[in-house]
Amino acid sequence: MKIATIETFDLTCPLGRPFGWSQGWIEQRNTTLVKITTDDGLTGWGEGAASDLINNLLAPLLIGQDPIDRNGLWERMFHALYNGNNAVGLAGSAVSALDIALWDLAGKATNLPVSALLGGKIRDKVAVYATGLYYTEGEFPDRLLDEARGYVEMGFKGMKTKVGGLSLKDDVARVRALRETIGPDISLMIDANEGYNATTAIRLGRELADLDLVWFEEPVNAQDLDAYLEVKAALPMAIAGGENLRTRYEFKPYLTQRAYDIVQPDIMHCGGITEMARICAMANACGIQVNPHVWGSPVMIAATLHLAATLPPCPPARNAQPYLQEPVMEFDRTPSVIREELCAVPFDQEESFIQVPEGPGLGIEVDETVVARLSI
Ligand code: CA
Asked: What's the pLDDT band for 87 if we cut at 50, 70, 90?
């Protein structure tokens, strides 16, 4: 079996109502899918970014190769980057897309789900929390608090909101109102998307210290290890980050120096399933919980579910619990036609868990008419 063709699809869908976070406003959703087809007609789907890099730099390295050789092909792609400029950057997202598609293909070729190829599941369903509660025009308090109540009614046991987009006083009022609305038994997290320096992040964290926040995500610049260490030493809640880092080499100092309590690698950017498995093993050995970052189509949701199903608890426990020892996966609930329509049945949660797909490969069926409709 050899790789015959590699195609990329840049998808977009408009949003009915724009929403914001500390770095900007979003008016449409975008993603990049890749489809690898073999000479005997099998197809594998991946998700990432940088379709030009996929088509011009990486695809020529894979055409004609055996797609089962995932380790060797990952090295082949990475070495081309390493040898060329010593940096990965956006190309990490291109490698990720191709790597995920290779795992999907390997599963289809062997009639095994990706979780089985990874050595087998430790859990059949993965705990999730709702990501939403973004900034919208004229939202506060009614629309925001209604959204939070909606997640509780849907059965979510945890949810995450944004900070860093308003004055400290207004953000504090917003988070405080959310905690009062959902009560003490639902996990609540905040995410600054790198919007503060260490001093300001610590000031906000201290003002919110009585709200039993489970974690404070990306309080500072993702590249500023010293700022992470300063924030983590000063605040009582767990500090989370890592969605913007790529490869085990970028994660290494943050893990070994314990800059995070919770690490959040993103499978469509960090280097795909192959590399994320390595990052997760490093994190586990460092005593750092892996709660994967997820913001994309059913392709990367499925890839993340398969990997998350194989992660050991951190640390082992007789009755391991989400948020304590078990991984908790992000489940984006903001509007996205791509996420809801790419597969006939979108992923959904029940009691804050999602079942791991059981079909071969990623275990999803991509609707190519939807791919064509949403392609730019
Ligand atoms: Ca985030």
From this structure: confident
